[in-house]
Amino acid sequence: MSEDIRIKKGLSIKLKGKAEEVISAAPRSRIFAIQPKDFHGITPKLTVKVGAEVSVGTVLFYSKSNEQIKFTSPVSGTVSEIKRGAKRRILKVVIEAKAEDDFVDFGKEDPKGLSKEQVLTKILDSGCWPFVNQRPYDVIANPADEPKAIFISSFDTAPLASNYGFSIKEQEAAFQAGVNALSKLTQGNVHLSVNNTPTFFDKTENAVLQNVTGKHPAGNVGVQISKIAPINQGEKVWTVNPQDVVIIGNLFLTGEFRPYRTIALAGSEVTAPQYYQVTLGQEVASLLEGKINEDNTRIISGNVLTGATIASKDEFLGFYSNEISVIPEGNVYRMFGWIPFVGSGKIHSASRTSFSWLSSNKEYTLNTNMNGEERAMVVTGEMEKVFPMDIFPMQLLKAVMANDIEKMENLGIYEVAPEDFALIDYASSSKVEAQKIIREGLDLMINEVG
Amino acid sequence: MGFIRNTFDKYKPLFDKGGKLEKFAPGFNAFDTLVFVPNHTTHEGAHIRDGVDLKRVMVTVIFAMIPALLFGMWNVGYQHFSQLGEAGTFLDYLLYGSFKFIPMIAVSYGVGLGIEFAFGIFRGHEINEGYLVSGMLIPLIMPIDLPLWMLGVSVAFAVLIGKEAFGGTGMNILNPALVARAFAYFSYAPSMSGDKVWVADASTVDAISGETILGSLASGNSELSYSVLDMFLGFIPGSVGETSVLMILIGAAFLYFTGVASWRIMLSSLIGGAVMALLFNLVGVAYPDNALLNFPWWQHLMVGGFAFAIVFMATDPVSGAQTNKGKWVYGFLIGFLGIMIRIINPAYPEGIMMSILLLNVFAPTIDHYVIEGNIKKRKKRLKTA
Q1: What domain count does chain B have?
Q2: What residues does A71 pair with on adjacent strands?
Q3: DSSP 8-state assignment for residue A42
Q4: Which of A159, A217, A258, A260 measures 20 to 30 Å from A12, CA to CA?
Q5: Is A374 left (phi over 0), alpha (psi -120 to 50) or beta?
Q6: pLDDT score of B276
Q7: pLDDT band at residue B98, thresholds of 50, 70 and 90?
Q8: Same domain, yes or no, for B61 and B16?
Q9: pLDDT of residue B46
């Protein structure tokens, strides 16, 4: 293990409703769906029609811009609906599940004995490729690229996040197989960041381990990249979430696409927060039924900083989500709530205008209130406090808002992803939508620079 | 709470889109959000948000000014009566001071917020809270006898030209409060400077000298009638906010504690001022007649508007340097140049305000070099990779 990396800036927000370390199997839902909105920048080209019989691993659609990138079914059954939105955009491919799954056989092979091309083909064909994410731009990687390195963060420091050291500890062999497979895809290293706490990750072979400690966003892979091997213009770095490494590993161990995850169901509005074994794309209702307080609450696929709202229980689990957070909606007025120190017990603040910093171990019940209105960026220095990269966040945001491509490049747009700005969303007194701005900036770069 | 909320909700439809008074929505919303933090929820980005918003930040700064403000009002009465040789009670002083000072606050907020509301409604944007602080700062740095109409005109100039012309809160280059003061100083010099303006009624009542410490030093008089403790506690003539270093320090401690103002700027300004005053003290050995040069360096930091300016004006995040490194340079130069102007140009014995305005202009340049350093590092990394 190389030297420790200590992240000093940042903010760990402690919320009520942390998942207890117990795993139950979620009931199998009746319908499943794969939603193209989960795959930023991908235009789907369908290969199935309504009524088609599919198995786990059958291709549902591929990327219009790169036919190699396929998206496969997480379940066996019948395609029951292709839901379209405005301009006939595909919103969901819905599959009605059979009682038992049958799997497409992609062949059981030890990745150690395979060539890069063989590994690549298997991952692409099985529909595991979308798990490989690329920086810059925070999009699905292009299999034709040669990445400088592949990064895996074995821990998540976001509020209420899953503890991978616990949730996939039974999958040690699959994780190792996944790392072995990924190591074939790069000339550089597979970097695995671990936290101080001992887990099975410490024993991983074929990867360079780095100990990273500190407040959130220490667990964000982007922060780790910026400390270990910052991305330069023209370089590509790939990242994979540890749960997805397990899915890739299982592909090689069993020859099957096994789209299973252990996710945390957490948050103050969950009756008994714990872990559940789920299948990608399953209907949320089957998981949440009777387990949450539904009165004026928000269900989030992902964590409270970067996740996506699940509008209703008829929605489906996101392709990448490792947790579901349920917190109260904040559609309430608070009289004179802007007076400093008012409501310190309930209002959390990274600034010290609330006494919340005195009780840093207290778990808060935070709601979705904006706690103010959007204003011009006035206060300086507050973004820097929660942004541990060697980048000027406010200046970069302003460059994006001005669509100044050269400045964005100079200020480090290639190194960031929206999730790195999540804490700025949170902490900024101007209530600026930093993640949205960065996403727009990245999209502009994709279009203009490519 | 229910009743007030219901009242707002009752009239809200009038100001909503399509309502009769839609145009005036920014004005209505300003009042509504003043009483209630709105029920807006997050729609994109992070689902939870920090308790801090611009209102809270601005109000925190106002809280920090209150000790200096209250003491200043008392001191207005104290200076007036003690110079007349009359004794008064604590309450007499405070009442006299409030009688003089509260109209100034009213004019400052009335004119300033009036213009802000008009711009908000005219341009259809929400009213920013920035003026809440500027509006309190302006009367605190003006002479107590300044005619109210001059104050009003200065405020109007500061808000219109100093702020709205650049696009409003967050966009201005110069600190609006200092723009008001500079405008008043150059337009109404007799009411703004000299030794007859800093104590109430000094210009009309002969018994009141009203000369400030810097004023008498500048005129070559090194025999001061005030002790160091007077300077620290604030029993000296001056503008309302600036006299008591103790009260300003309480405010500074509050700003530091809440993290709202940059401690980097406060500390580096102090260092800059100390270094410059110390240098002049050393030069002063050769010129024993120059009272300002020989005024002990640490006392320089306690008199005039120095302390008030570096705590409340230099730390304005909009007009100051924005990068952390830049803040060090920015603050240091403010202190350094402030004392230099004070000593070298005795015609204008309070240099710190001028020095902040000057550095406001240079703050983007300072930041530019700091950011350029970051860019160079990134390009170098690319070359070696």
Answers
A1: 2
A2: A61
A3: P
A4: A260
A5: beta
A6: 95
A7: very high
A8: no
A9: 93
Question: Which residue range is the domain that position A422 belongs to?
Answer: 370-448
Among the candidates A97, A113, A144, a domain finishes at A97
CB A351 to CB B260 under 8 A? yes
Indicate if B30 and B62 belong to the same structural domain. Answer: no
Q: Let me know if residue B42 belongs to a domain.
A: no
What's the pTM value of the predicted model, to 2 decimals?
Answer: 0.92
Residues B110 and B173 in one domain: yes
Q: What ipTM goes with this model?
A: 0.91
Half-sphere exposure of B192 (CA within 13 A, CB side): 21
Q: Is residue A155 part of a domain?
A: no
B212 and B126 in a common domain = yes
Alpha-carbon distance of A43 to A21, in angstroms, equals 38
Q: In what order do the strands lie in the sheet with A133-135?
A: A5-7, A208-214, A190-194, A149-153, A237-239, A133-135, A139-140
Report the residue from A347, A352, A428 with minimal CB separation from B259: A352
Query: Does B227 lie in the same domain as B142?
Result: yes
What does the pLDDT average to over B1-22?
79
pLDDT > 70? residue B1: no
Q: What's the domain count of chain A?
A: 2
Mark yes or no for CB contact A373/B260 under 8 Å.
no
Among chain B residues, the shortest Cα distance to A365 is held by B48
Q: Give me the domain span that covers residue B147.
A: 55-372
Rounded to a whole number of angstroms, the distance from the CA of A412 to the nearest CA of chain B is 8
Residues (pLDDT < 70) of chain A are 1-2, 344
Q: Are residues B149 and B270 in the same domain?
A: yes
Q: Which of A175-184, B28-37, B126-135 shows the lowest per-residue confidence on average (mean pLDDT)? A: B28-37
Residue where a domain terminates, one of A97, A114, A144:
A97
Virtual CA dihedral for B314, B319, B323, B329, nearest 10 degrees? -50
Is residue B36 within 8 angstroms of chain A, CB to CB?
A: yes
At residue B203, does pLDDT exceed 80?
A: no
Q: Are residues B214 and B330 in the same domain?
A: yes
Partner residues linked to A45 by β-bridges: A62
Q: Report the residue from A304, A325, A331 with minimal CB separation from B41.
A: A331
Q: Closest Cα of chain B to A397: distance in Å? A: 14
Question: pLDDT, tens digit, for every residue of A372-384?
Answer: 888 888 888 889 9
* Residue B292 CB coordination number (10 Å): 23
Distance (Å) from the C-alpha of residue B349 to the closest C-alpha of chain A? Answer: 31
> What is the C-alpha separation between B324 and B263, in angstroms, rounded?
10
CB contact under 8 A, B317 and A352: no
Do residues B65 and B15 both lie within one domain? no
